[in-house]
Design brief:
It is built from 17 helices and 8 strands. The chain has about 400 residues and is an alpha/beta fold. It has a single domain, classed as Rossmann fold, CATH 3.40.50.1820. Strand 3, helix 4 and strand 4 form a beta-alpha-beta unit. The longest helix is centred in the middle third of the chain and has 20 residues. This is Lipase.
Length: about 400
């Protein structure tokens, strides 16, 4: 127990951020927490979309290994304009389809695309709030439910959802936008199932995560340094789902300065990714917190930790003994990025804790069909600002529309 306490203390110490305190801190924090709690209990993605006056549809696709994935659809904008194109949006780590609509009408990417006539589909990967279902396994009782990383998401979840969307719409390809882990899974899919490249009209990566040699997230650095110990610890105490209802977040909150930073510090997504005060929309904070974190497996986090530690984009490392059984080699195979032949565009920024400029450029050089890379001029733009930032609809989304317009 002493070792665990020390580890928690180390992890806690690194998620403290400097930010100005709120006025009447205690009362403000109490009200905000009550608001977050109420929204968590009453607000879903479907509610958010209907509240904005957009049509929304709800679908389920079942993978070959039994995971039931929830897909949300906005078939068109308020005017009914249609351009015959199908967009597929894939969320990042600890997130859900809510990321694409939280910013509201005319500002969230899902609405921006729908207003332009796109038929917008938003996937939810296994284990998150909306895809926490299985044909035989119970996520609250069966540890086996959580035995996946983002490899299985790229190898199985994405192909399953893309095939479902294409079959339902009759389209021959989708315009794919991924954010963070939504890009990781795309590059896994393109590498291990190259036949799916032809089903992608164009792919835009927002803050792409593949190589992580130069990422600066303190929490992920700690995970990378301790990933062997943490993996064993999680297996020993049976922690399979990462953080969402964990005592860890309450523990770390005690180490955070009061005010806005304390609320952010209690949220595992912001603890991992950081935030930009210039792009933070305070009026949306309760809604964001009510929908994130949306769930993930510890193995997803550990897989990223392995990538940071080795600097290699490869399959999950189970240890030499298990690797020989699973892969036939001592070390996991690398993903062959040259097999990703779909048209790919990368959008990234200098202030991103996870998608470092040099790592994105390394990815660009390895892909089989790189079409363009775009470094944002706004230095303050951080990893989460692509979905929650005040200026994302001005800085990022017009570029997405322009790039899709080339295909």
């Amino acid at each position: 127990m002493i070792g665990v306490s020390v580890l928690f203390a180390l992890l806690s110490a690194i998620v403290v951020h400097a930010a100005p305190p709120l006025e009447n801190q205690a009362a403000d924090l109490h009200r905000l927490r009550l608001q977050i709690k109420a929204l968590k209990e009453t607000s879903t993605v479907l509610d958010l979309i209907r509240a904005e006056g957009y049509p929304v549809e709800n679908y389920y696709a079942t993978t070959s290994d039994g995971y039931i994935l929830n897909i949300h659809r906005i078939p068109h904008g308020k005017t009914g304009k249609r351009n015959g194109r199908v967009a597929f949006l894939q969320h990042g780590l600890l997130a859900s389809s809510s990321d694409w609509v939280i910013a509201g009408s005319d500002k969230a990417l899902a609405y921006v695309l729908a207003n332009e006539g796109y038929d917008v589909w938003m996937g939810n990967l296994r284990g998150n709030r909306y895809s926490r279902n299985h044909t035989t396994l119970n996520p609250d009782k069966d540890a086996e439910f959580w035995h996946f990383s983002w490899h299985e998401m790229g190898e199985t979840d994405l192909p399953t959802m893309i095939d479902y969307v294409l079959e339902h719409t009759g389209a021959d390809g989708v315009y794919y936008v991924g954010h963070s882990q939504g890009t990781t899974t795309f590059f896994v899919m393109g590498s291990v199932k190259p036949e799916y490249n032809r089903k992608i009209k164009a792919h835009v990566s927002l803050a792409p995560i593949v190589f992580m040699n130069h990422m600066t997230s303190p929490l992920l650095k700690m995970v990378a340094a301790w990933h062997g110990v943490l993996t064993g610890l999680f297996e020993m105490i049976g922690v399979n789902e990462f953080l969402p209802s964990s005592k860890f977040l309450n523990f770390t909150a005690n180490f955070c300065s009061r005010g806005l930073t304390q609320i952010l510090c209690e949220n595992s997504l912001f603890a991992l990714c950081g935030y930009s005060p210039q792009e933070m929309n305070i009026t949306l904070l309760a809604t964001v917190m009510a929908h994130t974190p949306a769930g993930a497996s510890t193995r997803q986090i550990m897989h990223y930790g392995q990538g940071i530690s080795t600097g290699i984009f490869r399959r999950y490392d189970f240890g030499w003994k298990e690797n020989r059984k699973i892969y036939g080699t001592l070390h996991p195979p690398e993903y062959e990025l040259q097999h990703v032949t779909a048209p790919v565009y990368l959008i990234y920024s200098k202030n991103d804790w996870l998608a470092a400029e040099s790592d994105v450029e390394k990815l660009y050089a390895r892909l089989g069909n790189s079409k363009g890379r775009f470094l944002l001029s706004d230095y303050s733009f951080n990893h989460l600002d692509y979905t929650f930032g005040i200026n994302a609809h001005k800085i990022v989304y017009p570029k997405v529309l322009s790039l899709f317009g080339r295909h």
